Amino acid sequence: MRKLSALTVVAALALAACGGNSNADKVQTSTAQEVATETGTVLQLDPASSSIKWKAYHKGGFDPRFGTLESEGNLTLENDAISSGKFTIDMTSLRTDDNAVDIAKTGGKTAADLDGHLKNEDFFDVEKYPTSKLEITSVRSFDPAKDKSVLADATHVISGNLTIKEKTVNIAFPAKVSIQENEVNVQSKFSINRQDWGLTYGTDGDPKDWMISQEVDLEFDITAKK
């Protein structure tokens, strides 16, 4: 009976590990593509009205951790459409929301402690790699017949080279693009697999890394202005 009980527990943990709690679009990935040429009117990202949010999970979607990142960059418009864009993400700005960490469960470790853990050599090594970047490679219209999105009003599919710690992967994700006379707003919510960029905790197969979901959600709300 003890052996059966142990196997049951292991099976339950395995099933939990397969699941997640992400409510984001899964990106399509490929090798790095040619970056779109900057043509048209350049609009600069407005930090005051822009945000990047992140969320990560333990296996099974338990105890999510979430916070923010800061960035700078630009979008270009040509014929009332986005033609290119480049964003630099400041990895030193990574912050964990205090509400994401229950110190009663963590043995007293705080959100600031998690920031240090994420910024050191365990994950992003921000002293060596202080920035990441996203460079648009193409933009096409969202096709409801074949494209799916958690965004009820997605308008486009954006493809771009995402570089983290010098590893570049092309990602494609749905977005809602709103263009006005003097500004552009881009909203998206997508999930990446951290291991595509070699983001592991410890050595390959380390139990500490196994306890962390491979999914990381990124939510962009970017406004660029003339």
Plain-language structure description:
With 226 residues, this protein is α+β, with helices and mostly antiparallel strands. The protein has one domain: Lipid/polyisoprenoid-binding, YceI-like (Lipocalin). Helix content is 15%, strand content 46%. Strands 1, 2, 3, 4, 5, 6, 7, 8, 9, 10 and 11 form an 11-stranded mixed β-sheet that branches. It is globular, with a radius of gyration of 19 Å. 29% of the residues are buried. Mean pLDDT is 89; it is low at 1-20.
Main beta sheet: 11 strands, mixed
How much is the average pLDDT? 89
**Going by CATH, what is the homologous superfamily?**
Lipid/polyisoprenoid-binding, YceI-like
Return Rg in Å. Answer: 19 Å
Which bin fits the share of residues in helices?
10-25%
Beta-strand proportion: over 45%
Shape: globular
Provide the CATH architecture.
Answer: Beta Barrel
Structural class: alpha+beta
CATH-defined fold name: Lipocalin
Order of helices and strands: HEEEEEEHHEEEEHE
| The CATH C-level class name | Mainly Beta
Domain unit count: 1
Compute the separation of the termini in Å. 70 Å
